[in-house]
Amino acid sequence: MAKNVEELFSLQPVVMKQLQTIFDKNRLAHAYIFDGEKGTGKVDIMRFFVKLMLCEQPNLNVPCETCRNCRRVDSGNHPNIHQIYPDGQFIKIDQIRDLVAEMKMMGVEEGRKIYVLHHADRLNIASANMILKFLEEPDGEVTAILLTEQMQSILPTIRSRCQHIKFQKMPRHVLLNHLQESNISYSMSCTVSMMTNELETAIFLANDEQFALARKTVLKLVEVIRQNVHEAMLVVHEEWLPLFKEKSEMEQALDLLLFAYRDIVSIKANPEAACTYPDMLQTFKEAALHSTYERLSSQMESILQARASLQRNMNRTLLMEQLMLNLQEGYTFV
After folding, report:
1. Which of 133, 151, 178, 269 could be bridged to 35 by S-S, CB 3.0 to 4.6 A?
2. pLDDT for 107
3. Contact partners, residue 166, CB within 8 Å, separation at least 6
């Protein structure tokens, strides 16, 4: 497996306990939906569960890792396991037709047959109807595992025939540990772990020069807002607007700005609070000392409303000028 059992438990303790209990009580269902965002460990835990179901010598509801079946699961060569991925945009009916034919054939291996549908929300209508019929009439000892990041896109008739396994977002402390193990600084790890819950995306952001510049520009703006509204306007026109030209870039920058003010609120409540910008701790402590909860709340509301105005395609220069005035005075954004 890509991750050992201890890592899987740290990532998804509830799911792991749920699957082990199912196995221990011999209550294996004929179909499961593994539902969770990207980066929540669905594929690694699916592999753990498949291996557990096929292992010749499981110990305390953990696969042995050394038997013939465990090794074949790892190598991807077990004849009783079939995995289907979208062919282009969809999982197509021919793929499901071939899968059903394979699953109904007399296999060379005795025991449970398992099929896995990756991105099961991308079944087209024809393939969804065919897999539904197979779910309703499983042939022998068969287990289906459907992986999805969009549970609501799967037909209700399919959902109702599967046991729902809900994956939670990766705990932030686990993501932080992975990022620091990837030689990313603690400060940057804290920031990107607020932007995304997915490890690969977080690593990309942490190593992206554009994101580093965005972070630096946002923090500079936070500092100058406290000093002088004219300085803040200068930073907006000379640095912010030229850097954040696309709507998505402006959205991200406003999110980073909101996190800064949220840090200040957290520090005001608890000087030892975990922050998005731990490298700004002293600066934010001073800001917290000289502000009130009411003003900070008003400033955060101003940022949220500015973000909403961005969605309505408000002129960005005007939007930022108004926001600077509101943040300087603590008024609510109009």
Report:
1. 151
2. 56
3. 15, 35, 36
